[in-house]
Amino acid sequence: MTETRRQHDLSVTETVEASSVAAGITPGLPPDDPLHAGGETRSQWRDVWRQFRSHRGAMVALVLFVSTILFVLVGPYLWTIDPTYVDIRARNSGFSVAHPLGTDQLGRDMLARLMAGGRVSIAVGLTAMIIAITLGSLIGLVSGYFRRMDAPLMRLTELFLALPLLPLLLLMVTLFREPLSQSFGPAMGTFILIVSAIGATSWMQAARIVRGDVLGLKEREFILAAKSIGTPAHRMILRHVLPNVLSPIMVAATLGIATAIITESALSFLGLGFPPDFPTWGRLLYDAVDQMVMYPWRVILPGLFISLTVLCVNYIGDGLRDAMDPRIRGR
Amino acid sequence: MLTFTTRRLLLAIPTLLFISLVIFLLLEASPGDPLGDVPLTVPPEVKERMREALGLGSPWYVRYVLWLKQFFWVEPLYWFDHVFGTQFSAGMQRIISFQSRSPVFDVIAQRVPQTLTVVGFSYLVGILIAIPIGIISAYKQYSWFDQLGTFVSMIGFSMPTFFTGVVLIIIFGVKLQWFPSVYDTTLEVRDWNSFWAQVRQMIMPVTVLALYNAAQISRFMRASMLDNLGQDYVRTARAKGLSEKTVVLKHVLRNSLIPVITVIALGLPAVFGGAIITEQVFKVNGLGQLLITAIHGNDIPMVLTLTFIFAILIVLFTLIADILYGILDPRIRYD
């Protein structure tokens, strides 16, 4: 036993004795290292998860959303028909064993196309959301934290909010589809274009929310304390501000996925999305509209997938918002 | 209030100028050529003259300023002449569409009534549905009505309008044959028969848009009612013996409507944007359909003017929402 250790134990016994005399109870001092002291630890995220589980709608939505993702990710390995394989003799077939969800006007298998389409639609939704949230949080953090940047950045946000988004998106996609397709290939080019167009036009809400929260945080004591010991700005933002605004960002991100999926399918529906041989849910719906009188299922299936995914994502967002609200949590 | 309004109006001018510049430059950077459809047999010098005739010869800033002048000076003058029979705009060039070679504003004026009847009516119906639903589901929070309302409105704004529209067409247009699936804009309302035909063809597009709008507005209404129901003044009103009807419909409802009205004003321009898709589904030849054909046809003046009108609507209604908020809620002070 080293000298310091002995000294420490001695002082602990002394303190316990001294305080037990005063208080009349002697449970001992709290452990030196509370993190590994045994017993149940409660982290913030575990609390959030516990609250989230009590939101029944959100849990059902989460299960459905995960199964949709599994369906589009794992599905193609189990159902190995190529979604672009044209079997002209089996065209327009109904539900059968060979094609459980039928085929389209060129005899392409609908199940395989729905899986492939879902991959693209969900990928677009996730990527566009990541772009929008990164941009929005960055702008919100900077304008909330640095007073000098606040006015110009908020003017910029207001400008973007005043833009007519859908017409502008239509414009951007039509105008730049050709050049990007030539440099990145038709599929990749359209993907980059749509994702960046949606991302660049949907960051404003996140920026405003984050800015508001940062402005509120800046008045708190722990920020003052951190500032008083000379924490540099970048560490201040990364260690103290960002973790505290994470919950509104996550809620905005979840709802952003839903908007991005809807926007992409709307663009596809207007015939301005991905090229025809490259299925997405919106594109499948658009292709089927011409023949909806004869084959209504071909319209309804992709539409159901879009609506179900968006509904799930919205419910998850709702549950997250409730779970992360400290006023509700713990009730 | 007046100073606030003037300041906001003055601020709107640079905003709108900037937006028009963004749209203009976006169109300018586009690789699309309005003369792309001209056959290759046309000799280059003729093509060059055609380009001049379309006004594409001069550099972009000249054309931008020219367009601004036409939009803000020539067109208002023309309408002024039209109304008062004066001759101010004689000999001035109006904004001409590349596609139809007729003034852009004439084409737009033809299309506005269709959009306004369908979109405006659906917004009205949406509000009329949403407000009672919001009131009841807030007053009976967590009841089965509230749960159902929450679920339906969740579905309402999760289902894209192009899907609900198509499903309605399949059910009511194709299977049941109740309503026509294509909106006939040449229909004139002259007697009861044509009026009934107009109503029948409006039901489906109006339902689709109204459901979507009602879903959002009812959520706001519910949240706002819930905020107010817990306030002290409600307890006071009940304590002094007012009937429950007076408390809810007079005291709480009036206060809860303040934020909802601003939301309604803010949502109006977005409805015009959303109507682009619904118009496409039901083949209504309104403003949205005009925009899409113009985009496909590289009709730069038309796209520029239409998009800019959408932007004006957004800026205008944001301003209206702010002013309304100040008028309705005396606690809000802008100065």
Automatic annotation (TrEMBL), chain A:
CDD domains: TM_PBP2
UniProt domain ABC transmembrane type-1: residue ranges: 118-317
Subcellular location: Cell membrane
Membrane topology of this protein: Multi-pass membrane protein
Pfam families: BPD_transp_1, OppC_N
Coiled coil: none
Transmembrane regions: 59-79, 120-146, 158-176, 188-210, 245-274, 294-317
InterPro entries, sorted: BP-dependent_transpt_permease, MetI-like, MetI-like_sf, OppC_N
Keywords for the protein's UniProt record, in alphabetical order: Cell membrane, Membrane, Transmembrane, Transmembrane helix, Transport
Similarity comment text for this entry: Belongs to the binding-protein-dependent transport system permease family.
Official protein name in the record: ABC transporter permease
Source organism: Paracoccus aerius
TrEMBL record, chain B:
Domain ABC transmembrane type-1: from-to ranges: 112-321
Residue spans crossing the bilayer: 121-139, 151-174, 194-215, 257-282, 302-328
Membrane topology value: Multi-pass membrane protein
Gene3D superfamilies on file: MetI-like (1.10.3720.10)
Signal peptide: none
UniProt KW keywords: Cell membrane, Membrane, Transmembrane, Transmembrane helix, Transport
PROSITE patterns for this protein: ABC_TM1
Any one Pfam family match given in the protein's UniProt record, by short name: BPD_transp_1
InterPro entries cross-referenced by the UniProt entry: BPD_transp_1_N (IPR045621), MetI-like (IPR000515), MetI-like_sf (IPR035906)
Subcellular location: Cell membrane
Family in the record: Belongs to the binding-protein-dependent transport system permease family.
Protein name: ABC transporter permease
Species name: Paracoccus aerius
Lineage, top ranks: Bacteria, Pseudomonadati, Pseudomonadota, Alphaproteobacteria, Rhodobacterales
